[in-house]
Automatic annotation (TrEMBL):
<dbReference type="InterPro" id="IPR000917">
    <property type="entry name" value="Sulfatase_N"/>
</dbReference>
<dbReference type="InterPro" id="IPR017850">
    <property type="entry name" value="Alkaline_phosphatase_core_sf"/>
</dbReference>
<keyword id="KW-0378">Hydrolase</keyword>
<comment type="similarity">
    <text>Belongs to the sulfatase family.</text>
</comment>
<keyword id="KW-0614">Plasmid</keyword>
<dbReference type="GO" id="GO:0004065">
    <property type="term" value="F:arylsulfatase activity"/>
</dbReference>
<dbReference type="InterPro" id="IPR050738">
    <property type="entry name" value="Sulfatase"/>
</dbReference>
<feature type="domain" description="Sulfatase N-terminal">
    <location>
        <begin position="6"/>
        <end position="297"/>
    </location>
</feature>
<dbReference type="Pfam" id="PF00884">
    <property type="entry name" value="Sulfatase"/>
</dbReference>
<protein>
    <submittedName>
        <fullName>Sulfatase</fullName>
    </submittedName>
</protein>
Length: 444
């Protein structure tokens, strides 16, 4: 398998987590489910950050946000360091033509990413530029892909990044939600509540509305896979469907609890990867780039911090991860935290005086956020959190001071600190200033 040069389609979207039928959620996603049936679904794939730009930056560089420089949102002046290399740059050096369709939200400067061909899309978050959601609707991007294959002018092997704006919340009359005449919401009375939140009407309404956006994503995936088959490329194309972090609800997006950092990952490569597999190994989104390089028979540069999981796909000897790391520093406010997750435990270190649960601006100003913000933000967050994920999968009971778990706490705390030191995490030196700190200095 090593040394193959398949075409590569990377399909990704906003704020979806694992809210898909193939991950056991109560929603019909037949086209994404079909990809999973024909390929491998990763049950325990997690993002390095519970927010957009930092997570996407890790996917594209194979490096953690505090290492590659993208510690906050790209439209808030955070940026990759000048020497960072991205997935399209690596693949271009391996002989690929590289294409961008739709959203990317890693930089406002598209030439920084190394794509040869930019077909459509925008740079900014839909929360900042409402027009972006129209340009990058899943339907519109899928139609552009369809035309791309119909023209039959593409050069193989090709790499195409395909980004949808859904399921990002949109602002409407002061609230952020998923409502839009383009999407058909489910019946709030019939949806299943989220197990880590109270069953309140506003939360149900938001989940039901989100269903319409998810169905639009699934329809677009169907359009793309049909176009790929019609072009005669399906058997020579590696398709990756993934998400950047968890859904935009309280205790999910913006938190290092599992609902915040969980991400879907489905990989299909006909004739090479056996279909119908479900892999429960711990995998991080920093691992995707080194896996692709490994597949192509390329050396993985030392600076890449992820590890290849290619052996999981080829049934060769694989040394599984003992743990993975996640982090957050800046979003719409300062929210510094670092986390380590094993198969059984989660340890989170918080580095600032913060409310018990942080809500990103779009979640705070939503129906779901209004239902629970007083309850979730009333107390002060502890500096350390420890959860036994086997006994407490929804991370409700903090065990950090429980004597029975003292050895677990100390072990995970030590691993986290060693990782921070090894990666020269700036939090070890003190608070991290905002990206526009130098602009603020003359006013202080």
């Amino acid at each position: 398998m090593v040394g193959n040069t398949p075409n590569i389609l990377l399909i990704h979207c906003h704020d979806l987590g694992r809210y898909l039928g193939c991950y056991g959620q109560d929603i019909d996603t037949p086209n994404i489910d079909a990809l999973a049936d024909d390929g491998v679904l990763f049950e325990n794939h997690y993002a390095t950050a519970p927010q957009c730009s930092p997570s996407r930056g890790s996917l594209m560089t194979g490096r953690y946000p505090h290492v590659n420089g993208l510690m906050g949102l790209a439209h808030e002046d955070w940026a990759l360091h000048p020497n960072e290399r991205t997935m399209p740059e690596y693949l271009k050096q391996s002989g690929y033509s590289t294409h961008l369709f739709g959203l990317q939200h890693i930089t406002d400067h598209l030439d920084r990413l190394g794509y040869e061909h930019i077909h459509s899309g925008g740079n900014l978050s839909p929360a900042v530029s409402p027009a972006i959601h129209e340009i990058n609707r899943a339907r519109n991007i899928a139609e552009t892909i369809d035309v791309f294959f119909e023209k039959d002018t593409f050069e193989e092997p090709f790499f195409a990044s395909i980004g949808f704006f859904e399921t990002h919340r949109r602002q409407d009359n002061g609230l952020y939600g998923f409502t839009d005449t383009e999407y058909e919401a489910a019946d709030p009375a019939e949806i299943e509540p989220l197990p880590y939140l109270p069953d309140e009407p506003g939360i149900r309404e938001d989940i039901a509305a989100m269903h319409g956006m998810i169905q639009a994503i699934d329809d677009a995936v169907g359009t793309i896979t049909i176009a790929l088959e019609a072009a005669g490329c399906a058997d020579e194309t590696l398709v990756i469907f993934t998400t950047e972090h968890g859904i935009a609800f309280p205790r999910a997006k913006g938190s290092c609890y599992d609902p915040g950092i969980e991400a879907a990952l489905v990989i299909r490569y006909p004739g090479i990867i056996d279909g119908g597999q479900r892999c429960d190994d711990l995998v991080s989104n920093v691992d995707i780039l080194p896996t692709l390089l490994d597949l192509l028979g390329k050396a993985i540069p030392e600076e890449i911090e992820g590890q290849s999981f290619l052996p999981l796909l080829t049934e060769e000897m694989y040394y599984p991860r003992d743990n993975l790391f996640a982090e957050m520093t800046w979003h719409d406010t300062y929210n510094p935290m670092r986390a380590i997750r094993t198969d059984q435990y989660k340890y989170i270190r918080n580095f600032w005086h913060l409310p018990s649960i942080y809500l990103t601006n779009d979640v705070f100003k939503s129906k779901a956020g209004r239902e629970v913000h007083e309850q979730l933000q009333s107390g002060r967050r502890p500096y350390e959190e420890l959860y036994d994920l086997e006994k407490d999968p929804y991370e409700q009971t903090n065990l950090v001071d429980d004597p029975q778990y003292e050895h677990v706490r100390d072990q995970l705390r030590g691993r986290l600190v060693r990782w921070m030191r090894h990666t020269s995490d700036p939090l070890l030196e003190g608070p991290v200033p905002p990206a526009d700190y130098e602009e603020l200095l003359p006013r202080i």
